[in-house]
Specification:
With 266 residues, the protein is mostly helical. It is built from 13 helices and no strands.
């Protein structure tokens, strides 16, 4: 009997990656499901990030500047693209930044490491949650596009949605770094240090003066915007491969910094 109990204890301490593939996938899927449901049921998170992009798009593209945009097809496209990227940024930055900071501060990250679950399940769940939010945002933006005098084919919308869903990765990585260094109370302020400057300095919503246009090249939002234009067959600045490399580099760099920070402080 003692031998059986010892064997059971050993089985409970096996890392999540030692699970059979079907159990491993199920563990990731369950964690992602409940992380997504948790954020969807949080009005302070779901409301702004699901509704604000399409509301602002309709405000500017229909109510305020509708007549002018109706005469400017390129302007209509750029307005749609800008608010689409705006909708991509929030879930990853805030979903990772604030959640990771609070869970680290409350000791939940250490608790999850001690549980017989895949070590990366919590982070992968937040990543998938952000992607689900982006997919919902893109569905609402696609429904609103005709009101903004924009006609895109189903293939173009699908291509743009895929690019933007995957484009959540660098913003998740940036939020991950914030969560790894900040307290729960300070995390919103630190996230906004990334979020607000990118809105204005990436040129996704407002053009920058010529003397400042180089600043946009430093922003992942700019590169995602240009990659989205290329994905739907429209004129863009720079080569798509360059934008992919920049976004991948940002993702890897910020993830590595966050992992290093967590390995030092827990």
């Amino acid at each position: 009997m003692s031998s059986a109990l010892s064997q059971s204890a050993v089985n409970l301490t096996i890392p999540g990656e030692s699970m059979p593939p079907n159990r491993l996938l199920r563990a990731y899927a369950i964690e992602a499901k409940y992380e997504t449901l948790r954020m969807l049921r949080a009005p302070a998170f779901a409301g702004p990030f699901l509704l604000l992009p399409v509301i602002l798009y309709l405000l500017f593209a229909v109510l305020l500047f509708g007549p002018g945009i109706a005469k400017d097809p390129r302007g209509a496209l750029l307005t749609f693209m800008g608010f689409s990227v705006f909708g991509v940024m929030g879930p990853g930055l805030f979903g990772f930044g604030i959640s990771v900071a609070m869970e680290r501060e409350q000791g939940l990250l250490k608790l999850k490491r001690a549980l017989p679950m895949p070590a990366a399940a919590s982070l992968v769940a937040k990543l998938l949650m952000s992607m689900v939010f982006v997919a919902i945002v893109m569905a609402t933006m696609a429904a609103a596009a005709p009101f903004g005098h924009l006609r895109l084919t189903a293939a173009q919308l699908l291509s743009l949605t895929v690019v933007n869903v995957l484009g959540a990765l660098p913003f998740c990585a940036m939020g991950f770094l914030v969560g790894s260094i900040s307290s729960g109370k300070a995390a919103p302020a630190f996230v906004n240090l990334f979020y607000l400057p990118m809105i204005y300095l990436s040129a996704i919503l407002l053009p920058l003066p010529k003397s400042l246009q180089w600043i946009a090249l430093l922003s992942p939002a700019f590169h995602l915007d240009q990659l989205g234009l290329a994905a739907i067959g429209e004129a863009s600045v720079g080569a798509p491969a360059t934008h992919v490399l920049v976004l991948a580099g940002v993702t890897l760099l910020f993830t590595a910094l966050a992992q290093y920070r967590l390995s030092r402080v827990g």
